[in-house]
Amino acid sequence: MDIKNIKGMKYPDIYLIRTFFKLGLHKKPGRVLELGCGSGNNLSLFKSYGWDVFGVDYSDEQIKYANHNLECLDDDHIIQYDLSKGLPPSLSGKFDFILCANVLYYINRQSMIDVLGELKKFITPKCVLFISGRTPDDWRFGKGDNVEHNGFIIDRHETGEYGLLNVFYNPNEMKNLVSQYIGKLNNIVILNTTYENIENGELINNHDFILYGTF
């Protein structure tokens, strides 16, 4: 699709792009599931290399964008669902790549653990798991009511997340949770990334982790 016709976010995550090609996934298409797929910007990378793409998102608008951008012809591939309630009951089959890019911190810790536990039945042998999230070094940490361990209802407007839950994880903590509730990851890569951005006149220091490996 011509880039000017893409709705919503247009480009895949840069660390996902690097992972995709480092693992040679452009040469071996399969089935990919993204939780919090948004406009389908990440899934577009997989689709362009012949992967069968599936996504879950809560937002009406983002679901419409994803269906448009990925040119989906049915409701089986892009599912609207609230991940705080777990995975969609209509989700079926197994996946060779599961992608959770900057989404799991928007649901509480127990819901996140429940999602990890449910994912176990959807993985193929050698399935790749890719998770990115926010660490306690992120600008948002501590800015709001502390409602659970490292979890805050954001009370600032700069990032457009006022009133939203953010739960922050150390990467090793997430690695251990994945191991406990899905299974042991092999060839694990953990990266930390820091970048600055101006949002509504405020300098925002973002601090994320990227974790991926193969079951």
Main features:
215 residues, alpha/beta, seven-stranded mixed beta sheet, three-stranded antiparallel beta sheet, globular
| Radius of gyration computed on alpha carbons | 17 Å
Report the helical percentage: 10-25%
Please report which band the strand proportion falls in: under 5%, 5-15%, 15-25%, 25-35%, 35-45% or over 45%.
25-35%
Total beta strand runs: 10
Give the end-to-end Cα distance, rounded to a whole number of Å.
33 Å
Structure description:
It contains five helices and ten strands, in the order αβαβαββαββββαββ. With 215 residues, it is α/β, with parallel strands linked by helices. The chain has a seven-stranded mixed β-sheet, sandwiched between helices. The longest helix has 11 residues, at 60-70.
Task: Walk me through the topology.
Layout: H1 14-22, E1 31-35, H2 41-47, E2 52-57, H3 60-70, E3 78-80, E4 95-101, H4 109-119, E5 123-134, E6 144-148, E7 151-154, E8 165-167, H5 171-181, E9 186-199, E10 202-214
Parallel strand pairs: 1-2, 1-4, 2-3, 4-5
Antiparallel strand pairs: 5-10, 6-7, 7-8, 9-10
